[in-house]
Amino acid sequence: MSGRRPKKGPDEPEEPNRHPRRPDGPFDGKKGGDRESVGDDPDPVEEGSEPTDGNAEETTKDDDAPPENDDTRDEERPPRTRPYPNVRFLLGIDGFPEAGFSACRVGGSGTEPLRYREGNEPLDYRLVPGTTTYEPVLLERGVGDAAALAGWRRLVEQGRMNEARRDVEVILLDEAGNPGPRWELRAAWPARYVAPDLDARDGDVAVETLELVHEGIERTGVE
Q1: Torsion sign over Cα 179, 184, 190, 193
Q2: What is the dihedral of CA 175, 180, 184, 189, to 10 degrees?
Q3: What CA–CA distance (Å, rounded) separates 42 from 20?
Q4: Residue 152 lies inside a defined structural domain of this protein
Q5: Which residues fall in a compositionally biased region of kind Basic and acidic residues (predicted)?
Q6: CATH code of residue 147
Q7: Residue 16's pLDDT is what?
C-alpha cells in the first residue's frame, strides 16, 4: 500500500480539523501573550482620531468656570463705618442731568407737638403730633451758560405746577466718587431764585441760589 490517503467517497463525512482549538477564556490564542477579552475592551479608537479621556468633560467644565479670583463677580461692598466727608455730593433732578453745586443745605423735617387733655385726667397735658413741616433745600452754584434751572423756576412763575414738581435726590459721595447715602425729596419745586451779587472790586465767583420746597424727605442708605 502506498502512503497516500485514500480519497473520500461522496457520502463520507469530512474529518474534523486536526489543528488544535483556540483556547476559550481571556486569551485569543494569538502568539504574543495576554489580551483582555472583548467584553472588557474599551471602545475602539478609530484610525486618525485622538483617544478620548474619561476626564475630558470635567476638564471642559473646569475651563469654562471662572477663576476664584475673578473680579467680574458681584461682590457686596462692606458697610462703611467712618463718617463721609461733606465735600463731595451731587443732585439728581427728574428731567435734568445730574448737577453739581458748590453748596447744599438739605434741611430737615419737624412735627409740631399739640397739648391735649380731657377733664377726667390729671392736670398734666398729653402731647400729640400735629402738622409736619419740611425745611426748604438751599442750593448754590457758580453761574454758567446753562439756564435749565432758571427755566425750572419759570414754570412756577407761569403756574405750570404739574410740570414744575419734580423728585430730587441729594447724593453724598465717598472719597472715590462712589454714591453713598442719599436724601430723596418728593414733589420738589423751586420757590425762590436769587441771582449772584456782582462786584468789580471783589473778584469772587458769581454764585446763584435756588431754594427748593418739597412735600417729604426720606433718608436712604447705600444701594
Answers
A1: negative
A2: 20
A3: 29
A4: yes
A5: 8-38
A6: 2.30.110.20
A7: 53
Query: Contact at 8 Å (CB) between 222 and 77?
Result: yes
Place of cell 451758560: 145
Residue with cell 426748604: 136
Mean predicted lDDT score pLDDT of the chain: 77
Q: Provide the residue type at 121 as one letter.
A: E
Cell 432758571 locates to 150
Residue 73 domain-assigned?
no
Domain count of the fold of the chain: 1
56-83 pLDDT tens trace: 455 444 555 555 555 544 466 677 888 9
The alpha carbon of 49 is separated from its chain's Cα centroid by a whole number of angstroms, namely: 45
What's the rounded Cα separation, in Å, for the pair 91 and 214? Answer: 15
If we measure between CA atoms, which residue out of 65, 206, 93 comes closest to residue 153?
Answer: 93
Q: What is the CA radius of gyration of the chain?
A: 46
**209 compared with 8, residue with greater pLDDT:** 209
Give residue 145's domain range: 89-107+133-220
- Residue 41 amino acid letter: D
CA 87 to CA 155: how far, in whole Å? 31
**Distance, CA of 155 to CA of 163 (rounded, Å):** 7
Q: Which of 163, 215, 160, 161 is nearest to 188 (CA)?
A: 215
Tell me if 17 is assigned to some domain: no
Q: Answer yes or no: is 14 within a domain.
A: no
Provide the 3-class DSSP secondary structure of residue 45: coil
